[in-house]
Amino acid sequence: MTNPNYTVLIVDDVPENLAYLHDALDESGYQVCVANSGEMALQVAHLMQPHVILMDAMMPGLDGFATCRRIKATAETQHIPVIFMTGLTEIEHVTMAFDAGGVDYVTKPVRPAEVLARVKAHVQNATKMHQATSALDAFGQATIAILPADKRLVWQTPLAKQYLEQYFAEWVAKEAYSAVQTLPPMIYQWLENCVQQFSAKQTMQTLNVNQGSARLSLTVANTSEEQWVIVLREHSDELQIESLGKVFQLTKRESEVLYWTVKGKTNKDVGEILGTSPRTINKHLEHVFQKLGVETRTAAASLVASKIKF
Question: What SS3 state is found at 219?
Answer without folding.
Answer: strand
